[in-house]
Automatic annotation (TrEMBL):
Enzyme class: transferase
Record Pfam families: PARP
Stored InterPro entries: Macro_dom-like, Mono-ARTD/PARP, Poly(ADP-ribose)pol_cat_dom
Protein's cellular compartments: Nucleus
Species whose genome carries this gene: Rotaria sordida
Presence of the UniProt keyword NAD in the record: yes
Keywords: Glycosyltransferase, NAD, Nucleus, Transferase
An annotated Gene Ontology molecular function: transcription corepressor activity
Record's protein name: Poly [ADP-ribose] polymerase
Location of the PARP catalytic domain: 99-283
Amino acid sequence: KDPEILRQSIIDLISNVMQNVISCNYTSIAFPAIGCGKHDCSVDIVVKTMIREVKKQIEIRNLSCLVKFIIEPYRQNIYDEFCKQLFSSNFHTSMEFHLPATWQISKENKIRLIVSKDTDEYKSIFNQFDEAMKKGYKKIIKIERIQNERWFMQYTAHWTDFKKRLNKDTEKRLYHGCREEAANLIIEDCFNRSFAGVHGTIYGVGVYFSSNAAYSHQYTNPNSLEERCMFLARVLIGKTTKGNGSMKTRPLGFDSTTDGNHIFVTYHDAQAYAEYLITYKSK
């Protein structure tokens, strides 16, 4: 498992395969996630090396062929890493990504922008929050749109996979309340399951969302200005089942767990996207 030996082995293999592609006039090729099964090689090294070397070989040999990466079912961590590396490498993929029409171009590459109060976008979010909170707050200070392109693309890849696998759209708009410090971390690096369990794990050890903003409000904390924050997130529910505290990951054959009512628990970081952050004051 020496990292350099692993890298060189992958480079040599891909070079030989590409030579065979040319010799046999193949128009497509499929690679497994080499060494990520029973050999338990580093997923990071394997995926980065494969993506980089395949791209390099295609460019220097001027090849035009379809390349597929085959990942075993339920190896979500490997799938996530391939998505991340494909996007960051500017590798041309067959998946089409369209950023939301509401997103604004920011010269400073800002990933959080304040939504203007006189827009339909603001009014829609305000009305949803106001109804869900049942007037149990004083006022909204601001609504920020989160424009984390890398995270959004990973989420979109999951959305495409869920839609293809389940033959229906299972996306929901749900709330997630948290401390201001946690919100800042989430905006930069998505919903991190390593923090799961901070407020309990009654329906599974994952990230909790609710369609009931008043419920999510319980998990917010006021900052020095008495302001609280809550995300309105896009969440892929997929096939869900009743959860319990012993579930450290999703049950086989399911994508999330639930209380059977308004709570949903996800188990993969890119399974949800924090679309808006609502900053408000409670009564």
